[in-house]
Design brief:
321 residues
C-alpha cells in the first residue's frame, strides 16, 4: 500500500459501493472519499471512464494502482491494511473455503435487477419501497433510463478514443433495463432470493450451534467478508420493503435476529450514516429535474424535514422489523 491514503471513488447509495465502504470501516482504515454521483451520470464522464472503462462504481485508488469491482476491493483492502479483523481467511483453510463459497453465493443474487425491478414495479414490494415518492416516480424513472441509454450513444460519438468502452456500456445498460422492465423476470429473481435466504438461515443455524454460546456470525464467531455481503444485502432488502418476505421472525428467526444484531456494530452504524447522506443528494437532483430552480430550495428544505420525520423508515427501519 502506498504512503498516501487510499481513495475510494463511490456513491453512498450504490449497493456495490456499500460493500467496499463497509470493508474499509471494518478495517478502521482512513481513506479519502470521492463521490461519483451516478444520478448525474458522473460514472460516464471521460475522466472516470479512463480509470474504469466499464464505467462502474466503486473504484479504489492506491497511489497509481487502481482496483475495480467491490469483491476485489475487499480482497485488496484486507490484504494491504493490517489493522482490524481478518475479513478474508486463508482460502486453504476450511473457514476460508466456506467464506469464499458464501461470498460467491450471495454475490450471485442479482440485486440490481431486484432494485430497479421494484422501482419499475413497486407493487411487488411487501411493505412499500422506503424512498420518497419523488424518487420513485415511475414515469420520471422510465424517462431517466431512456436518457441514460441515449447519453451513452452520444458519448461514443463524442469521444472516439473511448468509443469501445461507451458502446459496451451502452449495450449492457440497454439489456439491463430490458431485464428490469420484464415483470416476470423480476419475479423469478425474487423467488430465487427466497431460496437463497432459506439456505442462509441454515448457515446461521449451523454457525450458532458451533459457536458454543458466543456471539456468532455467518461462518462462526468472526465477522468476515461473507458477513459484509450479507449486511449490505439485508439493508437493501429492507429499503425495498421486502424484509417481511425474507427475514420474517416466524419464518426465518435467525436472519431476523441477525438483522437486529448488525445494527449494534460500529462499522454498520457508520455505513448507514453514510448512506443517509445520499438521500439528500438524490432528493435534490429529483427536485431540480421536476421543478424550476426558484422553488428547489424550498423542496430541499422539505426533503430535510422528510428525512428527519422518516429516519425510522430510512435508517432505523433496518433494525425495527
Amino acid at each position: 500500500m502506498s504512503d498516501n491514503k487510499l481513495t475510494l471513488y463511490y456513491f453512498q447509495a450504490s449497493y456495490y459501493s456499500q460493500k467496499a465502504t463497509l470493508a474499509l470501516f471494518e478495517k478502521g482504515c482512513p481513506f479519502n472519499r470521492k463521490i461519483i454521483n451516478i444520478q448525474n451520470g458522473e460514472q460516464k464522464t471521460p475522466e472516470y471512464m479512463k480509470m474504469n472503462p466499464h464505467g462502474l462504481v466503486p473504484l479504489l485508488k492506491d497511489g497509481e494502482k487502481i482496483v475495480v469491482e467491490s469483491e476485489k476491493i475487499i480482497d485488496y483492502v484486507d490484504d494491504q491494511v493490517k489493522s482490524g479483523p481478518t475479513l478474508v481467511p486463508d482460502p486453504s483453510t476450511s473457514v476460508g473455503k466456506e467464506v469464499k463459497r458464501l461470498r460467491e453465493f450471495i454475490d450471485a443474487i442479482r440485486i440490481e435487477i431486484i432494485t430497479y425491478g421494484l422501482l419499475f414495479n413497486p407493487e411487488l414490494s411487501t411493505s412499500g419501497v422506503k424512498l420518497p415518492k419523488m424518487i420513485i416516480n415511475v414515469k420520471r424513472f422510465k424517462e431517466k433510463t431512456q436518457e441514460n441509454v441515449a447519453s451513452l450513444e452520444e458519448a461514443a460519438q463524442k469521444y472516439p478514443d473511448l468509443r469501445d468502452s461507451y458502446i459496451a456500456k451502452y449495450q449492457k445498460t440497454k439489456k439491463f433495463y430490458e431485464d428490469t422492465k420484464n415483470k416476470e423476470n423480476v419475479i423469478e429473481h425474487l423467488e430465487d432470493t427466497e431460496h437463497r435466504c432459506e439456505y442462509l438461515e441454515e448457515c446461521l443455524r449451523r454457525s450458532k450451534e458451533s459457536s458454543g454460546g458466543e456471539e456468532y456470525w455467518l461462518t462462526g464467531t468472526q465477522f468476515n467478508a461473507a458477513d459484509i455481503l450479507l449486511v449490505v444485502f439485508m439493508d437493501r432488502i429492507v429499503m425495498l420493503g421486502l424484509e417481511d418476505r425474507y427475514f420474517c421472525k416466524t419464518k426465518r428467526p435467525l436472519l431476523y435476529d441477525y438483522l437486529q444484531r448488525i445494527g449494534q456494530r460500529k462499522s454498520v452504524q457508520m455505513l448507514r450514516a453514510d448512506v443517509k447522506t445520499a438521500f439528500t443528494m438524490i432528493l435534490w437532483n429529483a427536485a431540480k429535474a421536476a421543478v424550476p430552480y426558484v422553488v428547489v430550495l424550498g423542496l430541499a428544505i422539505g426533503a430535510g424535514v422528510w428525512l428527519m420525520k422518516n429516519k425510522s423508515r430510512v435508517i432505523n427501519a433496518f433494525v425495527e422489523k
